[in-house]
Input
Amino acid sequence: QLVVNPPRSLSTFAGDIEIVNDFGVSTTVSNGWTYLPTGQIFSIQPAKGQIGTVVTINGFALFGSGTAISQVILAGRPATIVSQSNTTLVLVSPSSAATPPGDVDVVSNSGTHVIRTLGWEFVEPAVVSSVVPTLGQMGTVVTVRGSGL
Output
């Protein structure tokens, strides 16, 4: 068994596989590998949030060499995938304490990773300490106090 990490490619094209052993003997498989464009994450909206935040990721070739996304990791925590295409993902952020920015890792069912370095930050959940007044009608001015609002 031979495991190879192919170089990055920005376009799709077929290429030969050539293996040379320790004795200088080579074996070539013509058009034995098809290079696929490397996936990219263009935007993450919003780029920070808390549990339950709906997150949209836009990019290119997010499936990598697969046919679907199997997992998305936001700053080390697995998110819930709501919908997916090769260019757009919609997720729901998991629970987590506030963290410094961390990577967004999109993992396809083929094992391909598309990563945006420092693309997500968990923030403290909002806490409401008071709502004044607690009842009213249309036109009533309501003041909400708390942290993380």
